Amino acid sequence: SDLINVAIDGPAGAGKSTVARMVAAQLGYVYVDTGSMYRAVTLGAQRQGLAADDEERLTQFMKSLDIVLKPGANGQFVYMNGEDVTSLIRTREVTGAVSHYAASGIVREVLGVMQRNMALRKGIVMDGRDIGTHVLPDAELKVFLTASVKERALRRFKELGQEAVVTLQQLQEEIAERDRLDEQRELAPLLKASDAIELDSSDMTIDEVVDAIVKMSRTKL
Ligand code: C5P
């Protein structure tokens, strides 16, 4: 039967990427992590010393920017102007600055066009902050995935394991601050679309969340 597009939005650390990747695998769809694109922009802009509010220079920068996403076994590879930046975009330096660059009009406009083009032929599971509200307002299924700040920080802390150079408290504050910036920005803020189904994953396992979304997807096919 027909292919659909699935939009998964929600705050930082709600498990969107993991869930979206697993849902895509089960449906045989392509997974697109839009956060990775904002991260790549942030890395590139930081390298060139561009400020997040320098719309003029960011416009020049965005013109020369090429981002390619390639699906891999354990996630998605990200290439910026031919360079594999998959792990470079996960540093705390990038994470701490990305919400500022994501507030830029030109950054959102250029990435939004790229994202809509990726979804034209459908069969996409796309995760982000504004997919259901702005990028793919016609997506057949929209999920707003949440979890308490405490639970999200705890998950991230466990993920970091022995590499953790931050305390749980610090992580909780960083996540809350990123949510605040994403929710309060002027352009395409983090917001549940009116027709999105909200899933609070605080007391759910990843498999339970994935099953629920796959089931909802199948009812739309
Ligand atoms: O999903 P991830 O946490 O990697 O996203 C990093 C940042 O990119 C978010 O905190 C947000 O500022 C920005 N973002 C966005 N719109 C999206 C996806 C991500 O503004 N669709």
From TrEMBL:
CDD domains listed in its UniProt record: CMPK (cd02020)
Residues annotated as domain Cytidylate kinase: 6-217
Pfam families to which the protein is assigned, alphabetical: Cytidylate_kin
UniProt keywords, alphabetically: ATP-binding, Cytoplasm, Kinase, Nucleotide-binding, Transferase
Gene Ontology terms, MF aspect: ATP binding; CMP kinase activity; dCMP kinase activity
Sites where the protein binds ATP: 10-18
The keyword Nucleotide-binding appears for this protein: yes
Predominant place of localization: cytoplasm
Reaction(s) the record says it catalyses: CMP + ATP = CDP + ADP; dCMP + ATP = dCDP + ADP
Compartments, as annotated in UniProt: Cytoplasm
Top-tier EC class: transferase
Entry annotated with the keyword NAD: no
Gene Ontology CC entries for this record: cytosol
EC number of the protein: 2.7.4.25
Protein's GO biological process: nucleobase-containing small molecule interconversion; pyrimidine nucleotide metabolic process
InterPro entries to which the protein is assigned, alphabetical: Cytidylate_kin (IPR003136), Cytidylate_kinase_dom (IPR011994), P-loop_NTPase (IPR027417)
Family: Belongs to the cytidylate kinase family. Type 1 subfamily.
Protein name: Cytidylate kinase
Organism: Paenibacillus oryzae
Organism classification: Bacteria, Bacillati, Bacillota, Bacilli, Bacillales
